[in-house]
């Protein structure tokens, strides 16, 4: 079994052919897909998508790149959704210090408040940590949650070990498939296998063979092959191990 722990199947990029995209994922052996929301006004769409497609589950949260138009009331809406829908996780939440026009202080406020909600509901979190690994770790040490996934991890081995110590798994996907991604590939090769989960982030972060085209959850099978090659394992071994890791980290799956 393959589990895609981070796929935006609800994105507009899939509006025209979502049925086919999902069918192709199932045909490729992807049996579970976790779909994280990014903004309150998309929660209903996320719910509708995971309700329509076999093997899909939802996470709800406010993405750091969507905090500028968000309001205090959105946190209350999120709390209501967590209470009523009992999702697998809170996400996608976190910090993004790569995009310059999103206020870091506002990002941090929404991140902290959502960590508190995750703690209150005893839910794992799906973390966006672009160029912000240490600030994210700082808040996780301050506000204890039950763990989760550091999505699209691209930090150091020391930072990876810090996440693992806090009960997190690390998400690897398309970036790992590029031969030039030496640090990511070395982490994928040497980290404890029980700390790794697979993801696509579709439609984003396409693997090398798509040449920048739209990513899709069906690509997870070939991404698993890359991890297997890096570690000297079979696809079946990698699939079983990473799926077990996902289920341990995300009990709602």
Structure, explained:
With 253 residues, this protein is α/β, with parallel strands linked by helices. The protein has one domain (2-249): Alpha-Beta Barrel (TIM Barrel), CATH 3.20.20.140. It has 9 helices and 8 strands. It has an 8-stranded parallel β-sheet with strand order 1-2-3-4-5-6-7-8. Helix 7 links the parallel strand 7 (168-172) and strand 8 (196-198). Helix 3 runs parallel beside helix 4 (104-121) and helix 8 crosses helix 9. The longest helix has 18 residues, at 104-121. The protein is globular and about 45 Å long. The two termini are 13 Å apart. The model has no long low-confidence stretch (mean pLDDT 97).
Which SSEs are present, and which pair or pack?
Blueprint: E1 2-4, H1 18-27, E2 30-36, H2 43-52, E3 56-60, H3 72-85, E4 89-96, H4 104-121, E5 125-130, H5 133-142, E6 148-151, H6 157-165, E7 168-172, H7 182-190, E8 196-198, H8 220-231, H9 235-249
Parallel strand pairs: 1-2, 2-3, 3-4, 4-5, 5-6, 6-7, 7-8
């Amino acid at each position: 079994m393959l589990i895609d722990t981070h796929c935006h199947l609800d994105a507009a990029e899939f509006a025209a052919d979502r049925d086919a995209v999902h069918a192709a994922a199932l045909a490729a052996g992807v049996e579970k897909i976790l779909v994280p929301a990014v903004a309150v006004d998309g929660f209903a769409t996320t719910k509708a998508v995971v309700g329509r497609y076999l093997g899909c589950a939802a996470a709800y949260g406010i993405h750091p790149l969507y905090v500028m138009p968000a309001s205090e009331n959105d946190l209350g809406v999120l709390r209501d959704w967590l209470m009523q829908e009992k999702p697998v996780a809170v996400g996608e939440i976190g910090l993004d210090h790569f995009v310059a026009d999103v206020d870091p202080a506002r990002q941090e406020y929404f991140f902290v408040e959502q960590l508190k909600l995750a703690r209150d509901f005893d839910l794992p979190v799906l973390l966006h940590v672009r160029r912000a690994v240490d600030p994210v770790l700082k808040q996780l040490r301050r506000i204890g949650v039950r763990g989760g996934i550091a999505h699209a991890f691209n930090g150091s081995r020391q930072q990876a070990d810090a996440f693992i110590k806090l009960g997190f798994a690390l998400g690897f996907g398309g970036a790992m498939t590029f031969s030039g991604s030496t640090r990511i590939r070395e982490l994928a090769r040497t980290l404890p296998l029980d700390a790794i989960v697979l993801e696509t982030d579709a439609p984003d972060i396409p693997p090398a063979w798509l040449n920048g085209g739209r990513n899709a959850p069906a690509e997870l099978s070939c991404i698993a092959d890359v991890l297997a090659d890096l570690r000297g394992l079979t696809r079946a071994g990698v699939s079983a191990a990473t799926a077990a890791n996902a289920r341990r980290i995300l009990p709602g799956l």
